[in-house]
């Protein structure tokens, strides 16, 4: 402040400047620090947080994840070539086979969550699927920061570098098919590694226990409670199909009212692509594999 005054040709003793600033500061109400709210749910599977990570959406790749609120345990983490409801629903169902059926699920208002919302409300009853803004979906939003730092940022920068060098045209279907063929398995491999390491890393604020330990100890500690979340983990008689039948029956419906529908999967194009053995060599790096696959696909086009 003294320097500003000198620049304006105003000469005042430093002591007077300090005293004036001090008196003004005392009159200004100091901002109160933001107090963090304590996150708390009673047991494992009381609340799952699910969301989609769109950092790679420019290249047609969406990462879907879900975290148990009590333990911070990742129940699924996977990259797909679409952001559709059947894709998210399949990931959710597979997770329930490993971790049990959650009591409540929280997500944003995205249409990709509608099948999970319908299923949870049918099985558990209304109000067991909570929707809200993504910024308030605390557990999963915190996870995305680490996912991007440790996994997706590498591919984010790589894909932009491929575009800048003229090797990738996102409007070219063949280029995108080659990109997905080469990079999607590697993305999911790294996500799987992150998934495993996250569930086994120690959490300082939880007595250095890992998410897996918190999930197991939380389940055993609360095993005597009459909790639907714990029953979904421990009950030998729990059946998603039976619970779904019961939920539909309350609305006068049955599973027979929903004949099996073959939902096409956008991943089929990748699975059906057969490459000659000499197209990709073991010693190739990812960029070289991408170039080789792209050239092969362009010869077929």
TrEMBL record:
BP term (GO), one: DNA integration
Molecular functions per Gene Ontology: nucleic acid binding
Pfam families, alphabetized: rva_4
TM ranges: none
Record-linked InterPro entries: Integrase_cat-core, Integrase_dom_put, RNaseH-like_sf, RNaseH_sf
Domain Integrase catalytic: 40-219
Annotated PANTHER family: EXPRESSED PROTEIN, INTEGRASE CATALYTIC DOMAIN-CONTAINING PROTEIN
Protein name: Integrase catalytic domain-containing protein
Organism listed in the record: Magallana gigas (Pacific oyster)
Lineage of source species: Eukaryota, Metazoa, Spiralia, Lophotrochozoa, Mollusca
